[in-house]
Amino acid sequence: MVGSGRDELLLKKESKDLENVYFTGQVENIGDYLSAFDVFIFPSRHEGLGSSLLDAIHFGLPVIARNVGGISDIIEHGINGFMVSESGPDFFTPLVELYENEAKRQMISKANREKSKEFSIERMTQSYISLYNQCL
User: Could you tell me which residues come within 8 angstroms of residue 127 by beta carbon, excluding any fewer than 6 positions away?
Assistant: First the structure.
């Protein structure tokens, strides 16, 4: 588990007897961790679009996220990730699908690397400049 949040203590308590669960807390360079992951789960019910989600697609990770806020503007279900319901905890079904289907993982990974180009510094800077010019 990379990062922190309001459920951190609960998660630590629930996973204390598990051998392969680690908690890093806040980290400086999330990319050091993302490059080692096979999938990115974004379970937030409230955060409409976290920068960690954009980092994950930059690294080509398949994303499993709740359908909240602006996430559906980034993730196309079945194309570059999976959307699960806002209330349900069903992250397991798409996780199993990704585990069992290497071709699907590779397709999603490629789609996310391509999608991440839409959020490059250059492209985002140009979008902000255009928006500012429209306001003037």
Answer: none
Is residue 23 in a domain? no
Flag whether 4 is in a domain.
Answer: no
How confident is the model over 66-105, as pLDDT tens digits?
Answer: 888 888 889 999 999 999 987 766 888 899 999 999 999 9
**Residue with tokens 């996973």, as numbered in its chain:** 15
The 3-state secondary structure of the chain reads CEECCCCHHHHHHHCCCCCCCCCCECCCCCHHHHCCCCCEEECCCCCCCCHHHHHHHHCCCCEEEECCCCHHHHCCECCCEEEECCCCCCCHHHHHHHHHCHHHHHHHHHHHHHHHHHHCHHHHHHHHHHHHHHHC
Q: In the numeric block, which tokens belong to residue 77?
A: 């279900």
The enclosing domain of 120 has a CATH number of 3.40.50.2000
